[in-house]
Amino acid sequence: MPLIISNASPLIALSLIDRLYILKELWSEITIPNAVYKEVVLEGEGKPGAQSVVRACNEWIITKEVKNYQEVQVLRAILDEGEAEVIALGQEMNADLLLLDNREPRLFAASANLKLIGTLGIIKLAWLKGIIKNLLDDIRNLRNKSFYISDNLFKRIQQEIEEITGK
User: Fold this and answer.
1) Predicted TM-score of the model (pTM)
2) Which ranges in the chain belong to alpha helices (H)?
3) How many domains does the chain have?
């Protein structure tokens, strides 16, 4: 089973559109560091994603403590606590994939030779595997829920879908 470690943003975004289950369908198990649990569930109590993640933590999301706290402190100079712990845990556990959306942590993860995918990539992968039926509807729904997707990126995704489907 691949080791997948997620930051808060994909959990929250997928919860916003009732698609958190995609993660379980794709990988059956997701790991999050303590800081991500704290951000989504404890600090995010009453906000989108909190209850969905609590339920998932009882079933298929595993919470882990980062051991290399020095690495987290170095990364904290630029990244938030959750992002820093995701990257540090990814290095410690030799993760197969990190789920990250923001540019800065993605750059750090890539420089550490860690593979990554963002929320849009997750939704696209779920569509390609037949887990969801309409990729553009889910992306529009995300945009409507204030998840930033530039017009250029949206158009590029539309073009990719047209190339894949021939429509």
Assistant:
1) 0.93
2) 8-16, 21-27, 34-37, 50-57, 69-75, 81-93, 103-111, 119-128, 135-144, 151-165
3) 1
